[in-house]
Amino acid sequence: MKEETKKSLQAWQTNAKFWDEAMGDRSNEFHREVVRPYVTQLLEPKKGDFILDVACGNGNYAAYLACKGVRVVAFDYASELLTLAKKRQHAYLDQIEFVQADATDLDSLLTLKRDRPYHKAVSNMAIMDISEIEPLFQALYQLLDDEGIFVFATQHPCFVTLTDRYMTAHQYQGEAIAGQPVLQTYYHRSLQDIFQTIFKYGFVVDGFRESCFRDPEHPEIIVVRARKRG
Ligand SMILES: C[S@@+](CC[C@H](N)C(=O)[O-])C[C@H]1O[C@@H](n2cnc3c(N)ncnc32)[C@H](O)[C@@H]1O
Q1: Where on the phi/psi map is residue 50: left (φ > 0), alpha (ψ -120 to 50), or beta?
Q2: Largest separation between any pair of C-alpha atoms in the chain
Q3: DSSP 3-state assignment of 30?
Q4: How many Å apart are CA 61 and CA 187, to the nearest integer?
Q5: Which of 96, 102, 211, 217 stands 20 to 30 A from 122 (CA)?
Q6: Does 11 contact ligand 1 (Cβ within 6 A)?
Q7: Residues 106, 34: contact at Cβ < 8 Å?
Q8: Domain total for the chain?
Q9: Alpha helices in the chain (DSSP H)
Q10: For atom 13 of ligand 1, which residue has the closest CA?
Q11: Which residue minimizes the CA distance to atom 8 of ligand 1?
């Protein structure tokens, strides 16, 4: 594992218990009201779907999908979070396979290949936590079926940052939830950088939302649907 990934992993391992307790079974208000509705709208999960949950955290969204009759492979690089996810989502383990994989490592991602391609992939609020995103898009192109889509929600890079730089990719330390044990690393990318990566690896964008929390004029997240080009 690359040094940068190791550094970010260490923070998620340390914060795992705090994160799981803060999200509980229902996730927080931000996830419930800002993230999930738009992700679900663009993902359109339905019974019989086979979906990859990228950077699944404590597995709440995987469980939500399982309730809809979806089979899920949910991965994260933080073993501590996966242990808590398996415990919290024990009622759904016949439908959800929790596995450890690193989203910055192509070989690791390709271990997520199963006996059939995924119909869809989803990622809630993790793209800004992943130190390098090119391997993820490269792998998803191989893991998804020909009609496959990848829906992700991530911090709006224009409105949510702790620095005054926009165009240049950079990293900074911050808190996902107030009071977490240690700060984590955020990886800022401009919209242009995010979209160029999507296009570079064979996807087009056919769905896009900006979602607000407390301030209706300043969206905190973007939700993107990337679809495999035929
Ligand atoms: C803000 S949390 C979101 C968790 C979950 N998707 C949710 O919405 O509750 C970000 C997640 O990204 C995971 N993550 C960050 N970098 C990763 C990587 N390189 N590979 C796999 N998971 C990663 C973290 O462990 C953490 O679970």
Answers
A1: beta
A2: 46
A3: helix
A4: 23
A5: 217
A6: no
A7: no
A8: 1
A9: 3-23, 29-30, 36-43, 60-67, 79-88, 106-110, 134-143, 191-200
A10: 55
A11: 124
**What is the DSSP pairing of strand 184-188 with strand 203-211?**
unpaired
CA-based nearest residue to 99, from 87, 85, 88: 85
Q: What is the CATH number of the domain that holds 134?
A: 3.40.50.150
pLDDT, tens digit, 9 for 90 and up, residues 132-156: 999 999 999 999 999 999 999 999 9
Beta strands 221-228 and 144-155 are antiparallel
Looking at residue 33, the DSSP 8-state letter turns out to be: I
Q: What are phi and psi of 52, to 5 degrees?
A: -100, 125
Q: How far is the CA of 164 from the centre of ligand 1 (A)?
A: 25
Tokens of 41: 């709208």
Q: Containing domain of residue 121, as a range?
A: 2-228
Copy the structure tokens of residue 33.
């009201």
Question: In the chain, what is the straight-line distance between the N-terminal and C-terminal CA atoms, in Å?
Answer: 33
pTM > 0.90: yes
> Position of tokens 């730089």?
165
Check pocket membership of 55 for ligand 1, CB cut-off 6 A.
yes
Asked if residue 143 lies in contact with residue 109, where contact means CB atoms within 8 angstroms, the answer is yes
For residue 56, the CA-to-ligand 1 centroid distance in Å is 6
Query: pLDDT grade, residue 230 (50/70/90)?
Result: confident
Residue 35 has what DSSP assignment?
I
Strands 50-54 and 118-124: what pairing?
A: parallel
Residue owning the nearest CA to atom 27 of ligand 1: 57
Q: How much distance in Å is there from the Cα of 9 to the middle of ligand 1?
A: 9
